[in-house]
Amino acid sequence: MKALLLSAAICVAGLPGAAEGWGNLDALLFSHLTRSGNAEASYWLPNSIDPAQATAALGVVYEHIEGSAGNTTIAVGLFLRPSGGQWGFAGPVTDLFGHDPRDVVFEGGFAMMTTTMPGPNDPRCCPTVPTRWRIDLARLQAWQAR
Known about the structure:
There is one protein chain. By secondary structure, the chain is mainly β. Helices cover 6% and strands 42% of the residues. The protein contains one helix and nine strands, in the order βαββββββββ. The chain has one helix spanning 25-33, and strands at residues 10-11, 41-46, 56-64, 72-80, 88-93, 99-107, 110-117, 129-136, 141-144. Strand 3 (56-64) and strand 4 (72-80) form a beta hairpin. The longest helix is centred in the first third of the chain and has 9 residues, at 25-33.
């Protein structure tokens, strides 16, 4: 089966019409990936852009760190949906960092994703370095692809 490259993630927070057919993604993501029940931003990165065909997705949320001046944490989780079933939380993905998750490809028990990380001279606010991640979907662990 060919891997499907999604050119854009479905950004849950900003596209009310795009979530149609996916169900309440905010409730699904926030209940499994946040402590507070809400997030500054959330992303749904499925293995198919067609809700009826999707069977796996990475959910990413950025939750505000209470007491900080605008800092957020990142939480990533794998969600699976058996054919015709409901989405279920498979577990949190560890060791993945960065902003603006994108360019997800699912293939052969792994997913690849790009985020933007701070470079050596970047201020903390403004990361500029695209970083590719490889995610083992069985172990729920990510590492930088080289």
